[in-house]
Design goal:
Elements: E1 7-8, E2 13-14, H1 19-28, E3 34-37, H2 50-59, E4 64-67, H3 73-82, E5 87-88, H4 92-95, E6 96-97, E7 102-103, H5 112-115
Helix pairs in contact: 1-2
C-alpha cells in the first residue's frame, strides 16, 4: 500500500517496522553489515529499489549489500553510482535466459571485475 515494512523468517512474517528505522536500529545494536533484499522486486527484473537503497545507505555507516530486482548489468552500474554500497547481488539475471526465461546458467559477456574496477579505488 505504498509503505515499506520489514519481513523476517524468509519473508513470511511482517514485523511492522519501517526498513529505515530498522537499519538504524540494527547499526546501533552492533550489526557489522546489513543485507537489504527488496522481496517485492525479487525475480521481477524491475531494477533495484533505488529510493529505499539511497535512503538507507545515506543513514548508516556499516556496509550495505543489496539485492532484488536486477534485470541488466546496467542495473548494477546505476545503483552503485547512486548509493554508498558494499556489494550488489543478483540471482535470476544469471540463471534465466532469453524471452522465454529458459533455465540456463549464464554469465555476462564482460568480466564483472572490469565493471566495478573504478569503484575498487573508493
Amino acid at each position: 500500500f505504498g509503505k515499506y515494512s520489514v519481513y523476517v523468517e524468509n519473508g513470511k512474517k511482517n514485523i511492522n517496522i519501517d526498513p529505515i528505522d530498522y537499519a538504524k536500529k540494527m547499526e546501533h545494536l552492533g550489526a557489522g553489515e546489513l543485507n537489504l533484499n527488496s522481496i517485492d522486486r525479487e525475480g521481477t527484473g524491475q531494477g533495484f529499489d533505488s529510493i529505499l537503497i539511497k535512503k538507507i545507505s545515506n543513514l548508516i555507516s556499516i556496509p550495505l549489500v543489496v539485492s532484488g530486482g536486477a534485470r541488466h548489468i546496467q542495473d548494477f552500474y546505476q545503483i552503485v553510482e547512486s548509493a554508498n554500497l558494499t556489494a550488489v547481488a543478483a540471482g535470476n539475471l544469471f540463471v534465466y535466459y532469453g524471452k522465454h526465461k529458459a533455465v540456463l546458467i549464464t554469465y555476462p559477456k564482460i568480466e564483472l571485475d572490469e565493471i566495478f574496477k573504478e569503484y575498487d579505488e573508493r
